[in-house]
Structure formats: C-alpha cells, structure tokens
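REQUEST
  id: r-88c1
  op: predict_structure
  target: Transcriptional regulator
  payload:
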Amino acid sequence: MTTVEPRPVGALLREWRQRRRLSQLQLSIDADISTRHLSFVETGRSKPTKEMILRLSEHLDVPLRERNQLLLAGGYAPAYPASGLDAPELGAVRAALRQVLAGHEPHPALVVDRAWRLVDSNASIRLFLEEVAPDLLEPPVNVLRLSLHPRGMAPNIANLGEWRAHILGRLRRQAAATADPELAELLAELRDYPCDQPEPEVELPGASDVVVPLRFRHRGRELAFLSMTAVFGTPLDVTVAELAIESFFPADQTTVDTLRDRTGEPSS
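RESPONSE
  id: r-88c1
  status: 200
  body:
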C-alpha cells in the first residue's frame, strides 16, 4: 500500500494565493498581517493559528469545504458543519428552496449542488425533459450532462454551439476557482460530447444581447430562455454554501405564451 503524506497547511495556502493571482504583499495587506509572517506560514517556518487560517481563507475566497481541509491540515477541527439537506437544522433552507421553486412557476427552475447534481426542481422543468433518454434521468442526475449529452437536451438546443461554449466556459472557471477534481473530470467528459455547430472561443454578444440565451425546440416551436443563478447569502454550512438555484425566464412572447398555455396541462 502507498501512503500519501498530508500536505502542510502553508503549501496549501500558497496554492490558493497563487490560484487567486495574488502576491504575498497583496494578501498580507488585505489580511492585515506582515509579509514576513505570511512568508513564514507558507514555507512552514511558522505554524498558523486557527484564526489565521480562517482569516486568510476568507480573503482568498476559499470555499467552505476547502476551509475545513485547510484547518485539518493545520491540526485543527473543521469550523463549518456539512449537514445533510434532510437534516432537521436545514428545515428552513428546504422550505425556502421549495417556496422559490413553486413561486417561479410556470417558468422552469431547479436546485443543484456544487457538482451540478440535481437536488430539486419545479414541475415546469419537465418541458426540457420530454425527449431525454431515460437513463440520463436516473439519480443522481447531472444537469450539465443532461444539457449537452447527445441523448439529452442537446438535439433540441437550436444554438447548441453557443450554449455549449457558455456552459463549458462557466464550468472551466468554476473548476479553476474551486480546484475540485470532480468538476475537472466533468469538464473533460462534456468536452468530448459531439457538437455539429461552431463554438465561439469567447462569448461575443450581439448588438441587443445582454446574456447568452437558451434557444430550445419544443413541439414545433423555438423557445428562448434567459437563466439566472441565485445562492444563499453568507452561509455557514458547507451543504448550503454549495447549493444554487437556476431559474429560467422567457426571453420572447412565444415562450411566454407557451409557458402560460402549459399551466393547463395535466400533470404526468
């Protein structure tokens, strides 16, 4: 068996500083510590206190899950709980999510975790799923895989090249910001999916564009959606910090009319 030695907290902090493209001087000013002290912490010549690790993590915008890992590397207990979403203490969070999802009807909305796994959704999300292969809907459902997979939503996305470039760019930035290997693996998988449309290397908006729309073919109509992401403000639980609500809004009158008409359809 091969034993992997735990990495020292100073080296991990240095990696996060470099990932954020900050110099030691910039971080020391932001965190109100001396550059000499920060250098000693990063090289292991000085053992940081728990408070110092948390202060540097805050200024480096380290995700809560990784802050706990930094604390463990420094010899301290994790500071942030990671409750299951079904835990009693997260009852108010569950209620808030359900209220947002229900209140967004008849427009599609869903909740995802850090790895883009589906946590919950409202009934209107079914509009996107009518022609999706059943195996892609087996839990855990990854919504990015569902969106770009050739047996998922991709065949019905009219602007697949543009939407794919938008999704991959967003995931690439998220993977770089979090250093999450699961996101890096997902990015590599999605890049291998076929696409028969040109993919812009950069998102170049048209004269009247403000965001990248999702143009989706549904029962002979082309619907247009704008998406918006919402997260909980100042969460202190890892699970809550990693949740995001993805809401879709109609971008034209055809989509408004279609969503309005669907409210009269029987539930499946």
